[in-house]
Amino acid sequence: MIAKTLFDKIWDSHVVSSIPEGPDVLYIDRHLIHEVTSPQAFTGIENRGLKVFRPEKTIATADHNIPTKDQHLPIKDSLSRLQVEKLTDNCKKHGIDLYGLGHPKNGIVHVIGPELGITQPGMTMVCGDSHTSTHGAFGSIAFGIGTSEVEMVMASQCILQPKPKKMRINIDGTLGKGLSSKDIILYIISKISASGGTGFFIEFAGSTIRALSMEARMTICNMSIEMGARGGLIAPDDTTFNYVKGREFSPKNADWDKAMKVWSKLKTDNDAKFDRELHYKAEDIVPMITYGTNPGMGIKITDKIPLSKSLPEGSRASFEKSLAYMGFEAGSSMIGKKVDYVFLGSCTNGRIEDIRAFAGIVKGKKKAEGITAWIVPGSKLVEKQAKEEGLEKILNDAGFELRQPGCSACLAMNDDKIPEGKYSVSTSNRNFEGRQGPGARTMLASPLTAAAAAITGKISDPSDFIN
Fold first, then answer.
1. C-alpha to C-alpha distances, 262 to 141, 267, 279, 373, nearest whole angstrom
2. 467: pLDDT confidence band, cut at 50, 70 and 90?
3. Concatenated DSSP letters for 254-270?
4. DSSP E strands, 394-467
5. 334 with 305: CB under 8 angstroms?
6. Domains of the chain, with CATH numbers?
7. What is the pTM of this model?
8. Backbone phi and psi for residue 426, each to the nearest 5 degrees, phi listed first
9. How much is the average pLDDT of 410-418?
């Protein structure tokens, strides 16, 4: 019997047919849609006289364009309002469950899938959003697709897809204080670059990964796309099963026992081969922060920005352009640099554990003068839980406000935009030029590092605030 990787086991079991020397026809278990990439796909199938083939396999939410304040009022921006309205109309027409604005299950698509039990081990999952890789934390093959592919899945519940190469990244050891999964993934991307995973689907493994909570694992897989990978996944274990069990859409009773018999076998065989394998030690990781305009331009928060001459000659021009955009100097320290905005949220770090971590740092302290902070839960359920746990009161006492759920300042397709030239410490996933608003300068970091910046008004080592 040929030894297989976890990725191979899931992929091969979902292949409907293969095109010689070409892509596979892959069956999709769950299709997640939102208001931005679905309107053209709905129009496409309707122009061909089709309906959504299996609407019960599709789940919809509004997240990218929605405001995070006054959600009971009409959306001010006309384009955003139109997109949300079109999603509502299309879902009604095609019989798709929609968790729209104001719905108690509304939230960011990659937050509500796991918390509702829609995301399950062994599945294939797609969405017209690159950070669909988040769901791989459950031992599923999950990846983002383009609008034409959204149409393809709507029409057939299948997708044409070339099979990626396989990489395994092993992280072993124990994390130090003030560290989180965000630091792990920023560290890895800083080592292999923002294109180091191109062409691969990555399995994350090792004792450090196994010790992480499900929410922390989601952060890791969420940002696998930021190293150019097609997606990331982690083998399911008791941590996974305990998280999934009892959630609204997870299997119940005899169905649960049946599912567990399948899920417990979802692991890479001992002798399985990867196209590339990497190893890192948790003890080498410290709080991380980015200084440039792609997620690979990250350093340990206590280090200095590299000098141009230390880099390969072919990358120096883009490095210098990036520093000019950010207003930083090579060789300078990140510690102490001024911060204007702090953003806690997104499908990367908008879960309850992230809000707990942030609140744990700011408890009993005060927001720094001149800091604008947006604390945005990833869903209505996260918002509700933050209030029930008393986290909102801790935030309010420190001068912060818990906003309403949405993608918010991750991508500035809504009202939450960082002004031109201002510096933002963001727990989101991308720091491209203009990602958080035209001319915005973004530094990616963990919730703990964001909290430290929020109370000091500058880049600060979160380890100094951990008892």
1. 15, 11, 29, 44
2. confident
3. HHHHHHHHHHTT-S--T
4. 423-426, 441-444
5. yes
6. 6-162+228-265 (3.30.499.10), 291-461 (3.30.499.10)
7. 0.97
8. -125, 140
9. 94
